[in-house]
Design brief:
seven-stranded mixed beta sheet, globular, 39% helix, alpha+beta, single chain, Aminopeptidase
Length: 198
């Protein structure tokens, strides 16, 4: 694959029409990647149901696409069911694309999304053996705590400003344009969220 493929990748906010792409990305994760993401070797049936559960307005997901195929994803979801200054983040990157900066690109987008929602603490849990994710958290100045085989990282985003707000708005317009161009026959009733498929 090589560095050229990575440099051609695109990170964007998922739109209503990316549910299948997200599902297929999760299904392509090998056992080791599934274990790193979910703390267990998740079965295909679990991943399909998990993807359905992400069809909510308050879950922010960015995807990393190469040649139109999602190879990585980052989620931000509220703690206790609603955004109230705290949220949690999670990442998944297919094995062939790890170690090439994909996680950092996704992390930047999620931190910006947290800033724009007045999130004061962004929580991220990973296995104590997941050195790559711990290194990524440290890159973004996270506080790390180790307990019972797990690592809890907390990032404190800066306050939102015009630059962060305009940056996310531009990303969402790009997602809208992508859906409009690629799926002209579809009704764009929910271009920036997910259809509730449950």
């Amino acid at each position: 694959m090589g560095r050229a493929a990575i440099e051609q990748g695109v990170v964007r906010r998922l739109s209503a029409f990316d549910h299948e792409a997200y599902t297929q990305h999760l299904l392509r994760l090998d056992d080791a990647s599934r274990y790193l993401r979910f703390g267990m070797i998740a079965k295909d049936e679990f991943l399909v149901e998990y993807a359905k559960g992400c069809s909510q307005w308050d879950i922010v997901i960015y995807g990393y696409f190469v040649d139109g195929i999602m190879r990585g994803a980052a989620e931000m979801r509220p703690l206790d069911g609603h955004f109230d200054h705290e949220a949690e983040a999670a990442f998944s990157v297919e094995s062939d694309w790890r170690g090439q900066g994909v996680g950092a690109q996704l992390f930047e987008k999620i931190i910006r999304a947290a800033r724009n929602r007045n999130i004061r603490k962004l929580h991220m849990s990973c296995l104590a053996t997941n050195r790559a994710m711990q290194g990524l958290a440290r890159k973004f100045e996270a506080d790390l705590a180790f307990e019972a085989g797990n690592t809890e990282a907390i990032v404190t985003p800066h306050e939102r400003d015009m630059s962060s707000l305009m940056g996310e708005a531009a990303d969402e317009m790009a997602a809208f344009a992508f859906a409009s161009i690629e799926l002209p026959s579809r009704t764009l009733s929910d271009p920036l969220g997910w259809f509730n498929s449950r």
